[in-house]
Design brief:
The chain is α/β, with parallel strands linked by helices. The protein has ten helices and seven strands. It has a four-stranded parallel sheet with strand order 3-2-1-4, sandwiched between helices. A three-stranded mixed sheet has the order 5-6-7. Helix 2 crosses helix 8 and helix 9 runs antiparallel to helix 10.
């Protein structure tokens, strides 16, 4: 794929790079290309900021193991950031602005030349204040600059043999809470556990449990909706989610759609 050669060339004049690795397929491709081009001078870093699902952190660890790239994990608590916790429409800006600050500090300590992330062309079609924050702080996006779409990324990641090429897109757990409702540790925990329960119950990879003031609204891919029409199955799921602290459970029969919680 010509685009992949363009991506490799993007790194050709870089002496050292710090890659913000989320655990998803986009930043995985960036990390792979950087490591292929500049080897040990490429370092991946994952931020464990308390709204990152454990599954995402585990995925990041798996990715770096497959690539062979050096990996660092930085930990901090976004729930100490009142701008983030108040959860207005700029929540993602505050999240990524804080992440940028942490990455810039680490980059300075390590002496890396540039910081990069996994933003690509399809990301520009959504409301993404987080991207604005990253770019404001000088974070570069090689996939965007070489015109990679999401499908390009999946195709190339499959070609190079990374196991997560078909991993569903994900976002931080706070995205399950509508704007204006505060982000708390309790809500994040029940969302994460709720999604794990549903994944195990109906064998699906893509699921969202939206926390609507204590009501759990379930979204899954449209082809999995029939499984949630089974009365016994949904009763079992509802009972488990109510044990986590949800007051009641609803199913969105229109299926999963990114960002639907704030439509």
């Amino acid at each position: 794929m010509k685009k992949y050669q363009d991506l490799l060339n993007w790194f050709s004049n870089k002496n050292s790079v710090l890659i913000s690795l989320s655990g998803g397929v986009d930043s995985a491709l960036v990390a792979y290309a950087a490591f292929e081009k500049i080897g040990k001078h490429a370092i991946a870093v994952t931020a464990d900021y308390k709204t990152l699902a454990q599954d995402e952190l585990d995925s990041a660890k798996k990715i770096v193991h497959e690539i062979g790239i050096k990996h660092m994990i930085i930990s901090y608590d976004e729930l100490e950031n009142e701008n983030f916790v108040k959860n207005d429409k700029n929540r993602c800006f505050y999240c990524r602005d804080e992440l940028s600050e942490k990455l810039l500090i680490l980059s300075k300590q390590l002496g890396t030349e540039v910081i990069v992330d996994g933003t690509h062309t399809d990301d520009l079609g959504d409301y993404r204040p987080g991207i604005e924050a990253l770019h404001k702080n000088g974070i570069r996006s090689p996939l965007l600059e070489t015109n990679f779409t999401k499908q390009d990324i999946r195709d190339q990641t499959k070609i190079i043999g990374l196991s997560i090429y078909d991993r569903p897109s994900n976002s931080c757990l706070a995205s399950r809470i509508p704007w204006g409702q505060r982000v708390t540790a309790e809500r994040l925990a029940r969302v994460e556990m709720g999604e794990l329960i549903i994944k195990q119950s109906i064998d699906t990879k893509q699921v969202r449990v939206r926390d609507l003031d204590g009501i759990a609204k379930i979204e899954v891919d449209i082809d999995k909706i029939p499984l949630l029409r089974d009365n016994q199955k949904i009763e079992e799921i509802s009972e488990k989610l109510q044990m986590l602290g949800f007051s009641s459970v609803q199913v969105d029969y229109d299926g999963y759609m990114p960002g639907k919680v704030n439509f």
